[in-house]
Amino acid sequence: MAQAATDVRAMFDRIAGRYDTANRFMSAGVDVLWRRRAMRLLLDGVEQSPWVLDLGAGTLDGAVEILRQRPDAHVVAADFARTMLVAGRRKPRAAAVALHAADGHRLPYRDGAFGAAFSGFCVRNLHDLALALAELRRVVRPDSRVVFLEFFRPVRPRSFWDGLWTKRMLPLLGWAASGDRAAYRYLPESIQGFSTRAEFEAQLRAIGFADVSGQDLFPGGIASLVEAR
């Protein structure tokens, strides 16, 4: 497991400089809209000047969107791939984000440090999901909102989205945009090896989130949002 985690971290460090270009290219920019919707859900009704954790923050798209919607927020971005965080530092508002090269399985924060948390396209890459979710539960205050934006394994394979788009087209588009074929072959493999949304929601309840709900996003339910409190 340690070797697998090291390989994934090395992969993300390797593609950091081309990561955003590949994402915009592969999603035709829809990932930006998904993230905006996620942050509206996350930040609805939170306190003034909240402390917000962005787990698996990557190149800071999520952290910057939090600040765009709530300039008063204190945003902490944690990711085990340090080069990804550094690559996002040049973005507008990113200078206000606290960057921590931190492993999601061992978060360096006190209990209840955050009033809200977001994780975008991260949890699928964690080698011990139960441990990492328990850590996330530990560092948010009771009744705080946590929002996940993720690609979950479909309950039933969909011939176009799963057979053609995800398995064949996305790796080719990612390779064309990044020049790294192996990294974007990993994408469909990681989805197929992950939980369904219902399985993930059940796991959140098992570790202590009492109120959990999810929704699929356009187009075709490729990505999903899960809210937990």
Task: Characterise the protein shown here.
The protein is α/β, with parallel strands linked by helices and 229 residues long. Helices cover 46% and strands 19% of the residues. It has a single domain (2-153, 195-228), classed as Rossmann fold, CATH 3.40.50.150. It has 9 helices and 7 strands. A 7-stranded mixed beta sheet has the order 3-2-1-4-5-7-6, with helices on both faces. Strand 4 (114-120), helix 6 (129-139) and strand 5 (140-150) form a beta-alpha-beta unit. It is globular, with a radius of gyration of 16 Å.
Multimeric organization = single chain
Q: What overall form do the CA principal axes indicate? A: globular
Specify the CATH class: Alpha Beta
Q: Provide the structure class.
A: alpha/beta
Helix content: 40-55%
Proportion in β-strands: 15-25%
Largest beta-sheet details:
7 strands, mixed
Q: Strand order of the main beta sheet, please?
A: 3-2-1-4-5-7-6
Count all strands and give the number. 7
Q: How many individual helices?
A: 9
- Radius of gyration, in angstroms, nearest whole number: 16 Å
Please mark out the parts with pLDDT under 50 across 5 or more consecutive residues, or reply none: none
Could you report the average pLDDT, rounded to the nearest whole number?
Answer: 90
Any guess at the CATH architecture? 3-Layer(aba) Sandwich
How many domains in all? 1
End-to-end gap: 29 Å
The CATH topology turns out to be Rossmann fold
What's the CATH superfamily, by name?
A: Vaccinia Virus protein VP39
Order of helices and strands: HHHEHEHEEHEHHHEE
